[in-house]
Design goal:
Layout (H helix, E strand, L loop, with lengths): L3 E3 L9 H9 L2 H9 L6 E6 L7 E5 L2 H4 L5 E3 L9 E5 L40 H8 L13 H4 L30 H19 L3 H10 L1 E5 L3 H7 L7 H4 L2 H21 L4 E5 L8 H4 L12 H24 L4 E5 L2 H9 L45 H13 L4 E2 L3 H5 L2
Parallel strand pairs: 5-6, 6-7, 7-8
Antiparallel strand pairs: 1-4, 2-3, 8-9
Helix pairs in contact: 4-14, 6-10, 10-12
Length: about 425
Amino acid sequence: MVKYKLISEIDVAASADFLWPLLSSKEIPKLAKKLLPNKYEKVEVLEGDGGLGTVVYVVHPPEFASTEALKLPLEDNVRAPALYVFGDSLVDSGNNNYLQTLAKVNYTPYGVDFRNGPTGRFNNGKTVVDFIASWLGLPYVPAYLGLSEKQKRNTKTGINYASGAAGILKESGTVTIGDNLSLEEQVNYFTKTVKIDLPKIFKTRQKISQYLSKSIFVISIGSNDYINNYLQPALYNSSKIYNPQQYADHLVSNLKKHLMSIYKSGARKFVVFELGPVGCTPAFVFSATPKPTTPCVESMNSVVKIFNSGVTKMTKELTATLKGSTFIYADVFKKSHQENLHPNRYGFSGGNIPCCAVGVSTLCLPNQTPCANRNAHLYWDAFHPVQRVNYEIANGCFKGSTTCFPINIRQLAYL
């Protein structure tokens, strides 16, 4: 029996500001069913607050859904066999729940717009990789530490090794926060997956190689090497040892080494995220002394931009030198910086004010009611963006032409 999935992608000539309140209205599902009875049997908002990334469950009448032109086999919607994730809190899906660390968010109001509630994701809903997984036709990527040994031997749609507060360097994020899975540890766990778990799923090494070469590997890490290392001179001595260029080179060199290790294990398709404007985060803006005369602490942003330039150059070099590989880089700095400088222009009337009540840890205070309109804010807590921002980044990188270069993820998947 062949399963079918009805897929609709609609471009609407209306502003996002106009659509958000409509989608979040409880009357809209009723109205859609009433006005278009032949096309909608049931319309229900499953997840989200009506903003970008809201999941709407639509049931079409049999006569509508059976139109041959609209029926697509589910298998045809899968553009990659798996998605593997390495990174920090921006893409962590719950690994830190199993570590001794202050960087743990398995409580409300985190996950207020996520179907399963608090899961260890550091925002109100989905992360960038949650959106990417869905658009690849894959389930949300499970956290490695949350899987049993049996589950690890049966998981073939990808694994998330990312860990909140983790950095490219082992020491980053460890002095005052606690344990994390550094990039080296994450890569070691992936190596274990390839050597021990995947052979239980695929019978030959050739099939494993083919599977890995078609899978997509997302790397989003480096912020904590600045936030919880270089920019904390009272806790770390890295800024005393390296000037900004030397430190960026040091980070890029280590990142390159780990990417090559992932490649040697069989990966061929890489998406490497550059860093956003950390100097615009509420944690730094509101604690800066003296207070910046601009919306962001630009001295911090200038340091991060040096690293980003190094990543751009490195991904081009790796594509040219590693046979059969394709590295794309995601420039998330430029648009995010503009949104922080001119929030109202982009529909963020709440600006950089955190959506939740923040404690000294810069994370949301437990069990507090967050802001009502999450889509109006750039930040969920003092460091992490709201789901809407994650959607925009993921959407731009997946099918746009101004975020990921030299191609987008959709094009990467079809290579």
